[in-house]
């Protein structure tokens, strides 16, 4: 069981499903919202239990982002046409047991860091 929460504790989530696609996103939206790189993994939406007042923001025509309205923690990313939901790896309470599988949107990454960990990269 993986459990996570926002900074203030108003929102919590849990899943017994095995998370997939552990990645670090370097897109401009994730950088602006998180202050850097946003790391996440995904599970089927039906397998993620969320409690608390998530505020959903339509960040594009194809996806929305879930944040805590009190502390501002960026917790979830959901594509409108998919049945999966991504959750922040940084919000997991305790060890994740996951291994990073890819860096995504590296063409948009900041110019103030390099990627030298050998993990596959996708533009």
Structure write-up:
- Belongs to the Gfa family.
- InterPro entries: CENP-V/GFA, Mss4-like_sf.
- Keywords: Lyase, Metal-binding, Zinc.
- This is GFA family protein.
- The protein contains 1 helix and 11 strands.
- The protein is mostly beta strands.
- It has a single domain, classed as Metal Binding Protein, Guanine Nucleotide Exchange Factor, Chain A (Beta Complex).
- The protein has an 8-stranded mixed sheet with strand order 6-7-8-9-4-3-10-11. The chain has a 3-stranded antiparallel sheet with strand order 1-2-5, with no helix packed on it.
- A hairpin with a 4-residue loop joins strand 8 and strand 9.
Keywords:
mainly beta; Metal Binding Protein, Guanine Nucleotide Exchange Factor, Chain A; 3-stranded antiparallel sheet; 1 helix; lyase
Please describe the topology of this protein.
Blueprint: E1 2-5, E2 12-15, E3 20-25, H1 28-34, E4 38-44, E5 48-51, E6 55-57, E7 63-67, E8 74-79, E9 84-88, E10 102-104, E11 121-122
Parallel strand pairs: 3-10, 10-11
Antiparallel strand pairs: 1-2, 2-5, 3-4, 4-9, 6-7, 7-8, 8-9
Pfam family, one: GFA
InterPro entries: CENP-V/GFA, Mss4-like_sf
Keywords: Lyase, Metal-binding, Zinc
Question: What characterizes the major β-sheet?
Answer: 8 strands, mixed
Annotation field: number of helices: 1
Mean pLDDT: 97
Task: Output the strand order for the largest sheet.
Answer: 6-7-8-9-4-3-10-11
Determine the N-to-C terminus distance: 32 Å
CATH top level class name = Mainly Beta
Q: Which percent bin holds the helix content?
A: under 10%
Radius of gyration of CA atoms, rounded to a whole number = 14 Å
In the CATH hierarchy, the architecture is Beta Complex
Shape: globular
What is the N-to-C succession of helices and strands?
EEEHEEEEEEEE
Number of domains: 1
- Strand segment count: 11
Strand content: 35-45%
Named CATH topology: Metal Binding Protein, Guanine Nucleotide Exchange Factor, Chain A
- What would you call the structural class? mainly beta
Low-pLDDT residue intervals, each spanning 5 or more residues: none
InterPro entries: CENP-V/GFA, Mss4-like_sf
Family: Belongs to the Gfa family.
Organism: Aliisedimentitalea scapharcae
Domain CENP-V/GFA: 2-114
């Amino acid at each position: 069981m993986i459990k996570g929460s926002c900074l203030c504790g108003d929102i919590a989530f849990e899943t017994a499903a095995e998370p997939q696609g552990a990645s670090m996103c370097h897109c401009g939206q994730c950088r602006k919202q998180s202050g850097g790189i946003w790391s996440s993994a995904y599970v089927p939406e039906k397998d993620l239990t969320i409690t608390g007042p998530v505020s959903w923001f339509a960040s594009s025509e194809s996806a929305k982002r879930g944040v805590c309205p009190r502390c501002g923690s960026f917790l979830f990313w959901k594509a409108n046409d998919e049945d999966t939901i991504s959750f922040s790896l940084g919000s997991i309470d305790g060890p994740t047991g996951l291994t990073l599988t890819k860096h995504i949107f590296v063409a948009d990454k900041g110019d103030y860091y390099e990627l030298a960990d050998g993990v596959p990269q996708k533009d």
